[in-house]
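[Meeting: bench + compute handoff]

Bench side (C.D.) handed over the final construct sequence. Compute side (W.E.) agreed to return the predicted structure before the next meeting so the bench team could plan truncations. Sequence as handed over:
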Amino acid sequence: MRFSGPALPPLICSVPKLLQFSLDRRLIINFNLLKTLLKSESNAISAIKCSATLLVCNLDRTVFPKLKILEDFGVPTNVILKLLTTQSKSLMDHHHRFDEIFEMVKRVGINPKSPLFAHALVVLGKLPERAWVRKVENFKGLGWTEDQVIVAFSKHPYCMTASIEKIKKNMEFFRERFGWSPEYVSRSPVVLSFSYEKRVLPRSRVFRVLEEKGFYEGRIGARQLMMGDKEFLKRYVLKYCEQVPEIIDDDIRGKIEHFGLIIGGSEENILAVNS
């Protein structure tokens, strides 16, 4: 095993009972099992760093049966191994809790071959049942139906990890500024995870300036929030910056400089240096 130097103290601190187990009868055996399963020593180390309990638990009783359940349901091997390597804590729950989470993800209807299936398992593994209920009630208080919450979760499971305050602030802004309904947002739920201060508000300001100057008409859709910063700058800022110079504030200027874009000039010159 190659846990030495600076990597060793944090590992032992995360699971002090490592010191209580036999090196030969448990730690090395588990490490070798993981190394074989994950195809490399580096992958095994990544999994253990994610959850050092993998070194001390009974893998045959705790983890491997869950992997078999996922495999039998049709979850691809690469998705299962990625789950074990990067989110192994989600496989350390008691069997009854894992069964509950697994059944819930199945009921949602996420394709087991999609990486979203694993993401949904991870999210629900981190979210106690009472927290899930509280999140659903929060959505209902914002005008959502439970079916719309399920649709949103199936498309972007991490929308359920956003704080209640963040969801409320974004939803209220989406409704008042863009006229988006809960049904519309549920079909593009990633927007709920966006930072209000860093993405939602600055992009809304760009469109407000363009609207006031007559350069943009029509509805602002989720796509305008979801596109990458570089594409957004090219399409909605640099294209109009000569006619509407006030569109560029300090925040926008910083992003333009970050991507190496050129302010001004013909459309052909408004290109990314590295594009």
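W.E. noted at the follow-up: Confidence is low (pLDDT under 50) at residues 265-275. C.D. will use this when planning the next construct.
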